Amino acid sequence: MSRLRQALQRVLGVAPAPGALRSRTIDTNFSIIKEGDRVILHGKQPSLSKSLKRGEKLQTPRGAVEHDSIIGKRVWDTVQSRKGLSLRVSLPTLEEYVALTPRLVTPIYPQDANLIASLLDIHVNTPAAGEIQPTMEILESGTGHGSLTLHLARAIHAANTTPPPRPLRSQIKYLEGRVIRPSEKDTEQTEEKPAEPIADPAQEEWDAWRAQRNAIIHTVDVSPKFSVLAEKNVRGFRRGIYAGNVDFYVGPVENWIAQQKQQRKKTGLASLTGGNPVEPFLSHVILDMPSSNLRIPHVTPMLKRDGLLVVFMPSITQIGECLQLIRDQRLPLVQEKVIELGSGISGGRTWDVRFATKKSGADPASWAAPSDTESVTPAEVDEQSAASDTASEVSTTEEPPKEGESVLVCRPKVGVRIQGGGFVAVWRRIEDR
């Protein structure tokens, strides 16, 4: 309703298009190092600094470096340490940033995150003033380090208008009904339930802008520690240029789906039209978590027609479990590809993972004896008898699949490059129901 109201206001000339009159709140001149930036100091081993702050210093193997001596420098200028040694400073690329930020969990490395983002085939454009576009909403279950989150946020960035100044406090939302571990109670209760709601104009402006975004990354993780670090990592990259594209949630993904269904449920006259109480709203879904196959039935109904489901798993047998579940529950998903990932080699090796129907000719027990009308020599009769005996022996030790029964095939496809380190499977939703 808020998007419809804003559209009517723009048509009637009551309010300007969102972001049209707003000056840029993030300095995107990345040729000059500013206070608050995180920089790389290039020595024998590159190191990533904390956010630069006047009056502080950074310890390096070549000696301490004053933050004041870095702020205001051009990227790739040199600075002097207290030992008189020179170091070059630069702003980190996304690849460097993911590799050098502190971690609590192994990240999806940049080459793999790039590949996963490219598999989604995202194409966005900044809408013209007054233009209303369907919102692209992407669900990432398993925030982890925030590496893939950053790559996805960069991919959709052009769809959104200039954001207002970002509130300083965390924007993480804690889902109802989530299980709280004993070690989390003391640290998280203050975040979840503030003592008193305080009016904050900056927060209100931020929430109003968020309501009219054209592309959103919803990222969910069961661990508050992972979500807090991931939000910090997203905010810390390039002055938080992509932070407004991401909404962070803590809790199980099935709880998030249930909450979204409740919030988006049809009301009034719309509820009388029949059909689904909640229309599918997710353009793409990425599952990177233990037991991802168990979450597929929860997310599939909310995936739009032609939307992609991407599952990242450490082993090929887990991809097979996903395939089995999709087949057993008759979910409206068609497998597009399975790719093996890893470090050291770009691209990936495509795997053939599917259910194949066994052919009757492959089973010796199904070989039919020749008809009476065919002429058979005594030697041929002996050979057939021996083959029949052999088939009987095989059937007593290991019964082959019956004719028409499906068997799971998992094998690398021939003629493509190899990688190791994980598997990504892609399914596309092809039916409305």
From TrEMBL:
Residues in coiled coil: none
EC numbers: 2.1.1.220
GO annotation (BP), single: tRNA methylation
Record-linked PROSITE patterns: SAM_TRM61 (PS51620)
InterPro entries: SAM-dependent_MTases_sf (IPR029063), tRNA_MeTrfase_Gcd14 (IPR014816)
Polar residues: bias regions: 385-398
Enzyme class: transferase
One Pfam family matching this protein: TrmI-like_N
SUPFAM superfamilies: S-adenosyl-L-methionine-dependent methyltransferases (SSF53335)
Domain of life according to the entry: Eukaryota
Region (Disordered): 361-406
GO cellular component terms given for this protein: mitochondrion; tRNA (m1A) methyltransferase complex
Molecular function in Gene Ontology: tRNA (adenine(58)-N1)-methyltransferase activity
Protein name, UniProt field: tRNA (adenine(58)-N(1))-methyltransferase catalytic subunit TRM61
Organism encoding this protein: Penicillium vulpinum
